[in-house]
């Protein structure tokens, strides 16, 4: 019975984590990679509209491996995925969102 009580909070956390949308996960990953919150929110919206779920999962792999120091280093890290569309969409979103041309 004691094991069950300890397991319930972990199950709730796992269930809630599964409820986050791809956009929320991308935003959190970008912030974790060193992108400022407002720019990360803008980029996440654009990226989830333009990348497939498989590409978004691959993008998440980079964030788990290491923390970039801003957008420039993140783009360099993304090149290791060998998917030009991920790099292009991320770089374009970063440029548009950082410049204020997209919100």
Detailed description of the structure:
This protein has 103 residues and is mainly alpha-helical. The chain has one domain (22-99). It is built from six helices and no strands. α2 (22-32) packs across α3 (37-50). The longest helix is centred in the N-terminal third of the chain and has 16 residues, at 2-17. The chain starts with a helix and ends with a helix. The model is unreliable at 9-16 (pLDDT under 50). It comes from Sphingomonas panacis. This is Lipoprotein.
From the structure above, extract its key features.
single chain, 103 residues, mainly alpha, 6 helices, 76% helix, globular, Lipoprotein
List low-confidence stretches.
9-16
Shape: globular
Helix count equals 6
Largest sheet, described in full? none
Write down how many β-strands occur, each being a DSSP E stretch of 2 or more residues.
0
Protein name: Lipoprotein
In a few lines, what is going on in this structure?
The protein is mostly helical and 103 residues long.
Topology record:
Blueprint: H1 2-17, H2 22-32, H3 37-50, H4 53-65, H5 71-78, H6 84-99
């Amino acid at each position: 019975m004691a094991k069950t009580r300890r397991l319930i909070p972990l199950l709730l956390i796992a269930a809630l984590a599964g409820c986050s949308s791809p956009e929320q996960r991308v935003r959190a990953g970008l912030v974790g990679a060193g992108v400022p919150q407002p720019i990360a929110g803008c980029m996440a919206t654009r990226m989830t509209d333009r990348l497939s779920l498989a590409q978004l999962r691959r993008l998440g792999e980079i964030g788990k491996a290491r923390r970039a120091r801003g957008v420039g280093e993140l783009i360099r890290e993304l090149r290791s995925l060998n998917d030009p569309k991920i790099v292009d969409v991320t770089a374009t979103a970063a440029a548009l969102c950082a410049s204020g041309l997209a919100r």
